[in-house]
Structures are given as structure tokens and as C-alpha cells.
Amino acid sequence: MKIKVVTKDLPFPIRIYLPYGLVRFLTSPLLIKYYVKHIDSKTAKWLDGIDANMISELTKVFKEYRGTELVSVKDKDGTEVKITL
Predict the structure, then answer these.
(1) Neighbours of 32 (CB within 10 A)
(2) Cα 70 to Cα 17, 33, 36, 55, 81, distances in angstroms
(3) What is the domain count for the chain?
(4) Where does the source fall among the domains of life (predicted)?
């Protein structure tokens, strides 16, 4: 997954690359339990409701659609955000 942010303030765009393996690792059941123990209760309830198996399946499906642009937003001031699989 690629995230690209372009603003007039910066001479270069900000690019963030998230490998699917990293996304699956960060949403693994063990790490979610760790996160729930170390964050506030409101966020913990929301995070505890995430199904890690569903996230794993989603990342497998995302691999099939590489290059698909999920979000492409351009503001009046020239700020641009793109999220691509």
C-alpha cells in the first residue's frame, strides 16, 4: 500500500510505503491484545472489536488489486493525498 501526500509547503512529496506483511503483523491477535492493555478504554473497546482474521483476508485480497487507487483527493490550496494498493 502506498500513501502519497503533496503540499506546497514541502519541496518534495511525502511517500509512505506499507508492505502487506507489516499490516498483517501489526494487526495480529497478539499485538492487538498488547495494544488494548496499553491504551485508553474507549479506544481499547474499538480496537478489541477488530477481527484479525478479517484483516488478514483483506490483505490477501488487496494483493490481487495492486495499483488500484483507493483515495485521490486534491484541495483548493494544492494539497493532494493519494492512497494506492
Answers:
(1) 19
(2) 14, 29, 29, 17, 10
(3) 1
(4) Bacteria
Dump pLDDT digits (tens) for 15-44.
999 888 888 788 787 887 787 788 888 877
**Cβ-contact 29, 47 below 8 angstroms:** no
C-beta neighbour count of 27 within 10 angstroms: 20
Instruction: For residue 53, give the C-alpha cell.
Output: 482474521
Q: What distances in angstroms separate CA 50 from CA 20, 26, 31, 39, 60, one per listed residue?
A: 17, 12, 12, 15, 17
Domain span holding position 47: 2-84
- 59 within 8 A of 36, measured Cβ to Cβ: no
Supply the DSSP string of 4-16, one letter for each residue: EEE-SSSSS-EEE
Residues in the chain: 85
